[in-house]
Amino acid sequence: MTTEKKTVLITGCSTGSIGDGLAREFKSRGFRVFAASRNLDSMESLAKDGIETVVLDITSDTSIAEVRDEISKRTGGSLDVLVNNALEGAGSGLRC
């Protein structure tokens, strides 16, 4: 009997971000990791480490649908964990 790796999609995975760290941690725990960011180049080091990267703009319904379809195609329809780490307008600062 073979067991499939659990899959996780993490948004907001630019180099040096919390998402970057989460992607590496999930991979170290045996997950199949999909890292997402608006810019593919910002995830180059993750890709080099064997993490699957996808371009995702969380403000675009089209982009969200494309990533959903791509991950479904790559996994046969399976996604076990979703970590919504991306922040729209991150450059504007946090407000409490």
Automatic annotation (TrEMBL):
Gene3D superfamilies: NAD(P)-binding Rossmann-like Domain (3.40.50.720). GO terms for molecular function: acylglycerone-phosphate reductase (NADP+) activity; triacylglycerol lipase activity. It holds the Pfam family adh_short. Transmembrane segments: none annotated. GO terms for biological process: phosphatidic acid biosynthetic process; triglyceride catabolic process. InterPro entries: NAD(P)-bd_dom_sf, SDR_fam. Signal peptide: none annotated. GO terms for cellular component: endoplasmic reticulum; lipid droplet. Keywords: Oxidoreductase. Belongs to the short-chain dehydrogenases/reductases (SDR) family. This is Uncharacterized protein.
